[in-house]
Structure formats: structure tokens, C-alpha cells
Design brief:
This protein is an alpha+beta fold. The chain is built from four helices and 13 strands. It has a six-stranded mixed beta sheet with strand order 4-5-6-9-8-7, with no helix packed on it. The protein has a five-stranded mixed beta sheet with strand order 3-13-12-11-10, with helices on one face. Strands 1-2 form a two-stranded antiparallel ribbon. Strand 5, helix 2 and strand 6 form a beta-alpha-beta unit.
Length: about 260
């Protein structure tokens, strides 16, 4: 995984550096073999879940996709040309994912796209869009497309921005209120589920917070174990530096002190 800080008028970038583990694996940083939201055994190493606020973990990574058998469709007998072609096609495809709490997306969509292009981000989860409706929107003057959801309250709202190389692979979109959206993509032999989520902030009722986590857990439970999962969100909790009592789900890569939001997370 790789990531670079992004600073712009949209607000302070919540992304932080990710740890490199095995090549081709997006790590969840929460210890092996455990599902990030449930205690059940979870063997898929392609799952990544993160948070924002103090103790942020990276929401930007790269999935390495192994191509299938490479065939020379041009029938050339020139050995060096065939070798060059095979080497080119055998290189892993890198998919860069990120997440950003934008505060508001009104009048800033094109700016967001420009930043995604500059940082080579293929899929970007956004929170607090504050847009109305549940729609998909092509970004004028670009090849990006945004899937989003929010209620009529003028608050919250989440979305997922996808570039031209992947947007045609979207096969399913699911929304849960104005805080959770899932986009399912088919990329070659890989099925990737991307969730953008925005947890209730400090000061809101405990019932609303509990409902959010139940809704997110319910959404995650619909993803087959054989498919990849990426969750990008503003989860409004600090998990802290120590993992005492949470060894099975906390990788020990946070910092600071755990708060109530982090405990719920």
C-alpha cells in the first residue's frame, strides 16, 4: 500500500501512512484471521477497515491483481517482441483506494476529481457530502462517476467516486440511510466491495450510534467471504495505541488513548 498526504481547501486530509505487509495484500491492521466488525473467523486478507480522527489509520492502499494466462493474440514469431508483450501484461494491476471526509461536496466535486487524478486514486470514499437524493452522477468534464446517498436533512451523506478504468465494472449499489453506501465491482477475476461510512459524531444519542454499527455490520455480513472488502470512513473513534483486551481485532498500530467511540468500533 502507498499513500501521500493531501492538503486542499476541502479540508485536512485524514489519510495516514499504511504499513507494508505481504505483497499483493491489503491488510486491515487488526490482527490476522479476524473479521473487523464481527468476532467470527475471517480468512480474507484483502479486507481493510479504517477510521478517522485521532489515531487515523490509512484508508488509501493498492490492491495487486494477478492476471490470468497471457496469450499473444498477434501470432508474432518474433521472440523478443513476445517476451516484451508478456512482461507488460504480467505486471500486477494497482488499484489505489482512499477516503476523505470532505465536510461538504457542494461546489467542490470537480476539485475532488482533480485531486484524485493528481494522486492517482482510482476509488475514493467520501463522507459528509451533504447532497440530496440517492443517485449516480457523471462528473462533467471528466471520466469519473460518483455514487452517493443522503436524506433531506442537509446533514451527513456518503459517496464513492470511481474513475474511468473501473466505473463500468460496477454491478451493484446498496445504500443504508445517509451514512452507509456499498458499491460492488467486478475487476477481472476479482470481486471488490467498497463501503463508504460515516459514524455519528460525539454528542449524538447512544441509540443512533448503536444503530449505525448494527447497520454497518449488517451491510458487511452481505459480502461473501470469497470477495474482497474495503471500508473507508469517518468512524469518529480513537482505538488508542494499546490493544489490551482487543488483541484479536486490534493490530497495535494506533496511537493516543481509546475513547468511547473507539471502544464501540
Amino acid at each position: 500500500m502507498e499513500m501521500k498526504p493531501i492538503r486542499n481547501s476541502l479540508g485536512r486530509n485524514p489519510l495516514s501512512d499504511a504499513l507494508h505487509r505481504n505483497p499483493g495484500v491489503v491488510s486491515n491492521g487488526q490482527g490476522p484471521g479476524r473479521h473487523p466488525l464481527r468476532g467470527a473467523s475471517y480468512r480474507d486478507p484483502g479486507t481493510m477497515i479504517s477510521e478517522q480522527g485521532s489515531g487515523h489509520r490509512s484508508l488509501c492502499g493498492a490492491l495487486h491483481l494477478r492476471p490470468g494466462v497471457v496469450k499473444n493474440e498477434q501470432g508474432s514469431s518474433h521472440f523478443s517482441r513476445r517476451v516484451r508483450r508478456v512482461r507488460k501484461l504480467a505486471e500486477p494491476t494497482r488499484i489505489h483506494l482512499g477516503s476523505w471526509n470532505v465536510g461538504s461536496l457542494t461546489g467542490k466535486l470537480r476539485e475532488l476529481v482533480n485531486i484524485a487524478i493528481m494522486r492517482h486514486v482510482n476509488i475514493l470514499c467520501v463522507q459528509e457530502t451533504k447532497w440530496k437524493g440517492q443517485k449516480a452522477k457523471k462528473v462533467e468534464g471528466s471520466s469519473f462517476k460518483l455514487w452517493y446517498t443522503r436524506t433531506t436533512s442537509g446533514r451527513n451523506g456518503v459517496g464513492i467516486l470511481i474513475d474511468k478504468s473501473l466505473k463500468d465494472g460496477v454491478v451493484d449499489v446498496r445504500r443504508q440511510g445517509d451514512r452507509i453506501i456499498l458499491v460492488r465491482l467486478v475487476i477481472g477475476d476479482l470481486v471488490l466491495n467498497v463501503i463508504s461510512a460515516y459514524a455519528p459524531q460525539v454528542g449524538l444519542s447512544e441509540s443512533s450510534k448503536s444503530q449505525f454499527w448494527e447497520d454497518l455490520d449488517s451491510m458487511v455480513s452481505t459480502v461473501p467471504i470469497s470477495e474482497k472488502l474495503f471500508i473507508g470512513g469517518g468512524l469518529n473513534g480513537h482505538v488508542g495505541a494499546t490493544n489490551v483486551g482487543y488483541e484479536r481485532v486490534h493490530g497495535g498500530f494506533g496511537y493516543g488513548s481509546r475513547n468511547e467511540g473507539g471502544r464501540m468500533f
